[in-house]
Design goal:
- By secondary structure, the chain is α+β, with helices and mostly antiparallel strands.
- The chain has a domain of about 150 residues: Gamma Fibrinogen, Chain A, domain 1 (Alpha-Beta Complex), CATH 3.90.215.10.
- It contains six helices and eleven strands.
- The strands form two sheets. Strands 3, 4, 5, 6, 7, 8, 9, 10 and 11 form a nine-stranded antiparallel beta sheet that branches.
- Helix 2 runs antiparallel to helix 3.
- The longest helix has about 160 residues.
- The protein is rod-shaped and about 225 Å long.
- It is found in: Secreted.
- This is Fibrinogen C-terminal domain-containing protein.
- Its main location: secreted.
- Keywords: Angiogenesis, Coiled coil, Disulfide bond, Glycoprotein, Secreted, Signal.
Length: about 425
Amino acid sequence: MKMLNVDLLILGFCFGLATQYGAFGKNQYQIQNGPCSYTFLLPEQDNCQSTYNYPDQKDGPMDDESVQRLEQLEMGMENNTQWLLKLENYIQDSMKQDMLQVQQAAVHNHTATMIEIGANLLSQTAEQTRKLTDVEVQVIHHTTRLERQLLENSLSTNNLEKQLIVQSNEINKVNDKNSLLEKKLLEMEQQRQVELKTFQEEKEQLQSLILRQTAIIGELEQQLLKVSSNNSVLHQQQQELLDTVNSLINTLSTGSVREPKIAMMQDTPTTYTDCAAVYKSGNVKSGVYTLTIPNTTAEVKAFCDMETEGGGWTVLQKRFEGRVDFHRTWQEYKKGFGEPSGEYWLGNEFVSRLTSQQTYKLRIQLSDWEGNSAFSQYDQFSLDGEAQNYRFVLATKCLLIKFGLSLAISKNN
């Protein structure tokens, strides 16, 4: 606004000078300064006329009037020059002030603009700072959560490592125990092999001895048949000979393969259906006897217990070492399996036919490796036929603590 006022002042001044020249008809001087041109009117002396008539120059010397005229012109020119210098200084001073004002206005406007821009930048900076603060808070929160998770994972890893160490120690202990057990098992197996070899040798010796004794018995029987003519005397001598042979066999069997005492089968023409009948006939030693299946001529060999509860017990099952596999088929359990002198099963068909003839008792004797034993006795026992899947029929159980060996039945008296 100040710049505009200066321009209007200069233009007005120029316009006034031009108007004055038009009014008085004085001489004009024009000065160009930047975009503006300045026109100045030179003042004249008061006694000067408005027009001058210059005479033609002559070759002769100048008169006094010309000299005076020339001096007046020089003085007027000097005055005009001083006035122009003053005017120029005034214009320069005015222009300096106007330029200072313009510069101050420009600086002020520029400063206001810079302040506004700075304010905008500060607000934007504050907004960006707030956003950065929010992001920093989120990053710190996320970092804290990750650190917490890493700590938890580290604790879990430490716990797992501890558990793995404990389990590794336990596995090492178990491996050591397994190694020790394997070593002991190997030693026991070697000892068992040695014992089996010894038992096999003893068995072979006993078999050869039994063969020799059997041959001797055959010879003695032939001699007895030839020599004896009296049946009663022959029977008595034969019975004594059989007792002697049975005693010899029992004596030889005492140090053998830990099998129960086995007596020779009673070599008489009489048939027995169970061990109770064998016991009643006078055979009171436990051993293997030949029994006849009821209502048939078929024979089976069974172990008779002549010592437990008065004797006469027909042993259906005997199992004490586990050498015989009892995981058998239906037909094997029907017919029986194993050796009566060792571990065996008598056979479902024989027991079913036997118990269908009369009433029998059932006695179950059990014992463990620590020497604890017990038995369970039933007053009535029978076994149905194959059509009924050999169903057990029991009644009146009586349980007592006593040494037990096997499963046996006896005739009810």
